[in-house]
Every structure is written in structure tokens, then in C-alpha cells.
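Homework help board

Subject: predicted structure for assignment chain

Our instructor gave us this sequence and asked us to write out the predicted structure in C-alpha cell form, then describe one feature. I got the C-alpha cells but I'm not sure how to describe them. Can anyone check?
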Amino acid sequence: QVHLVESGGGLVQAGGSLRLSCAASGRTFSTYQMGWFRQAPGKEREFVAAIRWSGGSTYYSDSVKGRFTISKDNAKNMVYLEMNSLKPEDTAVYYCAARLGALSEYGNWGQGTQVTVSS
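My C-alpha cell output:
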């Protein structure tokens, strides 16, 4: 298992920026891919971005492409989500998640961090 702890959420005005961090511990050596997801009130959880633990290929949802950047620091077992040009519709609880294999689902989740964007 991989234990994940998110941080960096908060309140920001529209057009502002935030940087989320995710600290991973445990069986991090077996991690295949890390992802960020979000869930707004009354909505289903949705994919935001992902990064391969080895190689660093990145993937983004259309709604954040060009505004958000996912990155990682393997040595520190950290994953980051740099969020720029934030919009009120980006308001949600953001979750960090880990996939332990190419054929695995995201089976390890953090507790989430709240991001609120005011208009």
C-alpha cells in the first residue's frame, strides 16, 4: 500500500494560483502512476491530471489543460499540481491517488484538500 497526504489547498481569487503537494510513503517503489482527482459538491469525482512514476509522461483533462501542471520528485516521493488561472468552477476537494500497476485501478487515495476559488 501507498499512504498519501495532500496539502496546499486554500481560498484564492479567480485568476490566481495554488500549488498542491502530495507526499507518498510506503510501497512507493511499486508505484506506476500518480494522479490528481477532484470532487465538487453534488458532483462525481473527476480526473484532473496524472503522471507516470517512471518516465514522467503526463495526462490532463481538457478542462485543466494549459492551466494546470503535474510534476513529481521521485527522490522525495512527492507529486505536485501547479494550478494557474483558477476559475470558480475549479472549486472542489482535490485528491491525490496512486496506481500500483499498469493494469491496476487507482487503489490508494489521500484524504483530500479543499480548493475554493472565489469570483
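Reply (TA_rk): Your C-alpha cells look well-formed. For the description, you could write something like this. The CA atoms of residues 14 and 119 lie 5 Å apart. That's the kind of observation they're looking for.
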